[in-house]
Design a protein that fits this description.
There is one protein chain. The chain has 456 residues and is of the alpha+beta class. The chain folds into 4 domains: 149 residues, Cathepsin D, subunit A, domain 1, CATH 2.40.70; 96 residues, 3-Layer(aba) Sandwich (Rossmann fold), CATH 3.40.50.20; 64 residues, Dna Ligase, domain 1; 107 residues, ATP-grasp fold, B domain (D-amino Acid Aminotransferase, Chain A, domain 1, 2-Layer Sandwich). The protein has a 9-stranded mixed sheet. The chain has a 5-stranded antiparallel sheet with strand order 25-24-23-26-27, sandwiched between helices. A 4-stranded parallel sheet has the order 13-12-17-18, with helices on both faces. The longest helix has 13 residues. The termini are far apart. 37% of the residues are buried. The mean pLDDT is 88.
Length: 456
Amino acid sequence: MEKSIIGNQEWCCFRGLKIPLIKARIDSGAKTSSIQSTNIKQFKKGKETWVSFDVNPIQDNLSIVVHCESEIIDVRIVKSSSGITDKRYVVKETITLGEHTFEIELTLANRDGMDFRMLLGREAMKDRFIVDPSKEYSVGQVTDQELENSYSHLLHEKSGLSIGLLATDRSLYSNKRLLEAGIARGHDMFFYNIQQCYMRLDTITPEVRYRGGSIIQDLDAIIPRIRPSMTFYGCALLRQFHSIGTYCLNSDTAITQSRDKLYSSQLFSGNNIQIPITGFAKSPLDTKDLISMVGGAPLVIKLLQSAQGKGVVSAETNKAAESVINAFKSLQANILVQEFIKEAGGKDLRCFVVNGKVVASIERTAPKGEFRSNIHMGGMAKKVKISQEERRLALKAAKILNLAVAGVDIIRSNKGPLLLEVNSSPGLEGIETATGKDIANEMIIAIEKKLKYNQR
């Protein structure tokens, strides 16, 4: 039998599982094939033992879910490439790859954040294929339109809700996911670049216009994803949208408060929310007492407008702290000086709050040589279970700032959980990848609930 040549990744199909298209990583280093699965549950069907599971067949899209059932043929201990052992169910299903249709064994891999939704191992390739790692899609490419059409039956019918996404870069993971989630739930989704929006201020007919002069009207809701450098103008646009009757998922006031680290810290401390000891002063003459007031070095120095770890530095000694503080003050920069929580070990928690509920939580660990656990700087993130006290802290912080959507950062200390800060435009990639949860979908549901929209 002549063997076919396949590349390092290929499109395939599982008709029995009702998965018309799924991209597979071709991996001759793995013996058994696997498919990314969630909500895995064993059940009885007559005398046979079956398993039900959900598959997100499209990479980076948690909004499309295929519900599957298959008979269990085995349970195996599988060792992943990272060296972690895992007990997995094994099922047997018929796969179609190009012109070849045959049965393969599949392990159900509940590995959140797996890049490819499927992995084709060497047992499935044996006597059938030769792998050319320099090629891909040798048995046929699939267009975005073909992929969308193949799963159109899983999308809700159009609902009539019109939702705008106000951001800067449409291609960012968070923005793509929100557009996908809205479309999957049957809404009309529109992307508006903040920099290309402008306003007409008028008591009778106030307007928001978009590039070319088109009037943005009849939007039911707007989702703000405003980067820190665009806070002033983005919030001005939100006030304008509010004035013409558009619901804003996070208000301009809430975003402005969250971006002012001094003001938000004052709100938190005034509402009995524990935060690291924080100091703020104007004159360099007070530098030494300012350092002493927060417990001395090591300490953390933050610009008031810092974001994603930028504008945040640590000082190991009092002398180094004095130098950094005085340097910032000579530039007329507003800064906060904060105690360093050594026992946290470079770790913090990110709790994602949507509509008064913590929908996901991760623990972030700083890369070697860093004290900041921001994943944009190479830090690691993993799913974590938070305590009731930490949950209450996250919900209270979001409520004080009146944020419907918030990324609440908490650090574990010897004094208990301390609030670090609250992000009004939290990114989705790190937390969705680590937890496997469809947080974009939760945000769309929050809008539906606010507008009292009942999906058919």
